[in-house]
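Sorry to interrupt, but I need a hand with the structure work. Go ahead and set the record down below:
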Amino acid sequence: MLAALENLDLVVALRSSVWAYPIVSGLHIVGIGLLFGSIATVDLHLLGLMRKLDREAVRRSLVPVAIAGFCLAAVTGALLFAPAAREYLASPFFRLKLVLLLVAGGNAILLRLLDGRNVRRAAGAICGLASLTLWVAIIFAGRMLAFG
């Protein structure tokens, strides 16, 4: 199945183009930047390090940016994965990245479920710290795919 993915016309064109793969890679980095930059601000706010920022304004303005960044990173990440799917799937860093992404998603869902409820500030801070830690680890695992 992975070999079939690697041989799709779009994937072959992506792999053989001088410009396509680097452009997709650059867009992946832009997506990560949008995602991590906005999530880091939200998480630091949850940790109480940005108390001057209005909680609702932070949520209303940065969460959509984080979602857009995630979508861009996910689509471009899939395109970066496809040309060497078997190689990436064999990598422990890729598998670690996938697990960390699932855990980060679970953390985001938990935070969303806690939002608006009478929850102690400590619970939000724990979710924020977990999120920061997870996203740094995800970025590190992704870099290890390229350089490890």
User: Anything to note?
Assistant: The chain has one domain: 2-147. The longest helix spans residues 20-46.
